[in-house]
Amino acid sequence: MSTNDNQKTLSRRAAISAGASLAAAIPLAAMSAGAQAAPGAAVKRSASTITTRDGVELYYKDWGSGQPVVFCHGWPLNSDSWESQMFHLANNGFRVIAHDRRGHGRSSQPWTGNDMDHYADDLAQVIEALDLKNAILIGFSTGGGEVARYVGRHGTRRVAKLGLISAVPPLMLKTADNPGGLPIEVFDGIRAASVKDRSQFYLDLASGPFYGFNRPGAKASQGLINAWWMQGMMAGHKNTYDSIKAFSETDFRADLKKFDKPTLIIHGADDQIVPIDAAGKASAAIVRNAKLIVYPGAPHGLTDTHKDQVNADILAFAKS
């Protein structure tokens, strides 16, 4: 090969290298700009994602047509955990929407902002981007806190009804003015187990108290266990770690007092994760005219173990 040929080859390689660097820099610059977007910036939407004003991409599902029902999932899961309820309601004349919370499922994994205020603001931006009106908001476990904080921060102008299923409000943590809560050591233990071996901890949780599979005579579903573990491991390690503080230490009592729409509360009497007395029953005592349905012997994960009953109760509530 001649000197000229060598020079041409080197020039082409340099151009390719420069082009690759530029191609890499463009999306990075775009992400940086999105993360620093002004508070009044528009919420960007695609067919299955919404980019929040602070640059977090949220994956969402939007099935069916009719009055919208918005589902908020539990920790450390994602919108797939609602599939039984979404399938049922979409087949019965409702439009159903569920997003993966920031840091969970197919959404972005931001290092910061893993708290209830951000979760509620993200939910507000999903509702805004899809222009949902007369919506029914339903939250499971941590998602119930997300719904409560949404009402506290954004009101109920776009809301027709509210649902709290096995939900964490009013306050999970035991404090001087919340003696029925769980001691901080419980949540410190969850954090320690997450750091030590998050994968095994998730398997143990799904195999035991979450679905009540640790109770005498219980018949465990390996499929449910596997699905729970898979969803948990899809979430970010830092995001799920931070979320433990969010769901356990956030005080929702003031938020619940702002509920001014028909509210359905469903809780299992044998919930080993979010005990009913300090959660479902306590929330029902705060929310005006709330309807509390207690499932005897039901575990925390009753949207799966008792899905036919849950589906029927939610559908009846939505139609009422």
Automatic annotation (TrEMBL):
Record field: transmembrane: none
Keywords for the protein's UniProt record, in alphabetical order: Hydrolase, Signal
Residue stretches making up the AB hydrolase-1 domain: 68-302
Highest taxon above the source species: Bacteria
Single GO MF descriptor: hydrolase activity
Signal peptide: 1-37
Family, per entry: Belongs to the AB hydrolase superfamily. Bacterial non-heme haloperoxidase / perhydrolase family.
Name this polypeptide is given: Alpha/beta hydrolase
